[in-house]
Amino acid sequence: MGKRNRVFLFMLLMAFAVVLAACGSSENSSSSKDSKSESGETSLKDKKILVGTEATFAPFEYMDDNGNIVGIDKDIVDAIFTELGMEYEMRHVGWEAVFQQVQNGELDMGASGITITDERKETFDFTEPYFEATQVIVVTEDSPIESAKDLEGKKVSVQINSTGHQAAKKLLGETNPNILAYENLPLAIQEVINGTAQAAIGDNAVVYEYLKNNPNAKLKVIEDDAFEKEYYGFMVKKGNKELLDLLNEGLQKIKENGKLAEITGQELE
Amino acid sequence: MIKIENLHKSFGSLDVLKGIDYEIREKEVVCVIGPSGSGKSTFLRCINLLEEATDGAIYIDGVKINDPNTDINKIRTEVGMVFQQFNLFPHMTVLENITMAPKLIRKMNKKDAENLAFELLQKVGLREKAYNYPQQLSGGQQQRVAIARALAMKPKVMLFDEPTSALDPEMVTEVLDVMKQLAVEGMTMVVVTHEMGFAREVADRVIFMDGGVIVEEGPPEQIFGNPKHERTKAFLSKVL
Amino acid sequence: MEILDFRWDIIWNYREYFIRGIWVTLILTICGFLGGFIFGVFLGLGKNSKRKWLYWPCKLYIDLFRGTPLLVQIFIIHLAVIPSIFGHSLGFMVSGIAALILNCAAYVAEIIRAGIQSIDKGQMEAARSLGLNHFQAMRKVILPQAFRRMIPPLGNEFITLLKDSSLVTVIAANDILYAAKVVSGTYFRFWEPYLAAAALYLILTFIVSKIVSFIEKRFSVEYNPRKDKKDEGRVAA
Questions:
Q1: What is the ipTM of this complex?
Q2: Which residue of B has its CA nearest to C232?
Q3: What is the pLDDT of residue A174?
Q4: For chain A, which domains are there?
Q5: Labelling B169: which of A25, A44, B63, B118 has CA 20 to 30 A away?
Q6: Closest chain C C-alpha to A253 CA, distance in angstroms
């Protein structure tokens, strides 16, 4: 009986080791999946770049009736790649997955209204900014809340691990249980409507778009200087200088020829 | 005391009882014999309403028991039943098995119920097993406890459904002895059995059933000694 | 190699989240199970009934809650059902417990029903032959025996509920998984937080299974069912 147990245990350990090795190797192999050419310099330009996003963030990315991803980010990415003469594919993978998959190489870049922050820069590289934003507070029309200070002691909903989430943590405390973090911003706002939270914090462009599309929601927006200006950038794996340079090159071009301002409606310095 | 009129019982399209008429008088011991599938158990189970008659009537002391208005539970307190598989309650001790119904239904207090139980256990020869659990007893002992349990409700009539068929041969006697004792004391009994010796010795009357009807009935001397019907003869020649 | 370069200090930094997470998970599971059990007993008995007006509502309820994912049930209860009944949300705790109760009840009902049906027909017949009515027979004879048989599957259901309670993160209930998600997103590390979460759940389920084993043994000490008639040698003095 003892011998059989030992054999079984050994096989179990082998299986586990194989799985672990497979996990390790997949991190390195996916980026070179499509590459067919030999030399390092030109291979990236011929490759189809995989772009990840969370398409519930209108007007930056959302789904149209046919299930296609549309929005400002899509348009900018499209413009950049047209300038570069490169191919890309945009995929809706989910907010947290964007970070995970860019980090492990499954995706080449993230374009999801991602704010450039120092914490994120420790793990990722960002292009030059392409949009300026700030956080705003969303409350019901009849809410007594008038400023960021009034959020003290209230339940505040945010999108999980977004800059709104960071802002809430800064205002209310890192481990405050009153911060309710949801998968995406629409859900966070819905919870304000339902009364689970008394306020939501989210990116201004997205919030105003939501209100525009839901006039009956009976919500109002509060702006507060407590929230700093934020800049969106496109995100790549740390050290991916090649792609980063290409993206910045394309971004610079569309800034200069006015295409960027045309898409975002914003004049960026 | 028990009157059965034109009793029919079908299970779906299968007719098991095809018209039974019979009368059982007080203090009588009636044994029912016959091949399997003859409907003997079904007949017995109709008397305490474990099976519902499809047609016909059953009267106990003049009360039609298969009438929808009768209180089935009340009837059953007067009719005791002993099963082939004993069906003792395994989560209760022998004592609790016996005292449960008298306490719950006859509202006896614990002391009286236990006294009654000990009396009955004495009668079936198992007084010392009062605090054991059924699983700790042999088959013969379990069946004797089952008899005591049924007697605790002081029924007017006792029904036995092949009480010894599931027992090893060496345990059959101890159970039959208890039943003989009951008969001597004047209990009205209806016994479905394969024990021809018992039937011959103890029964006042024997019923031979086959194909859902009573083929022949009469005192044991007649049935065993001088059967009138071919089928009775054929059956007896196989079992005796 | 980055996989083996673990930073457990980030778990320590956010230990408050994890500790709170353990409490929330336990409260959700225990309340969900207790409520689900009580409700489930009624459902199970109802489904066993021969009366059509009891049977059908119970059957429909059970089929509905066993046939839809718990995640969907959580969303519907939290975002739609409770706000429409009460005019506003009652918070994730209420929604979470409600969803777990309603879900658990359907599974408990089936355990109850199966447990009752596993009792030999002869037991009911013997009880009824003594003159007990249906309820008395259930109370005194059937249910006591059935409950002993239900302990293992009920224990399993509790453990399942413990794990499934992690689904409430989607309504931002701060349970163990939620803690892991927040830590993971803050530091962009995925091994440490999720392994920590898994370890916590594992510890909890381990403790529960030990308790269930104990209860099982405790209840079967006096009573060891043996149907073997040939065991006459087992006569105890």
A1: 0.91
A2: B138
A3: 86
A4: 46-132+231-264 (3.40.190.10), 135-228 (3.40.190.10)
A5: B118
A6: 32
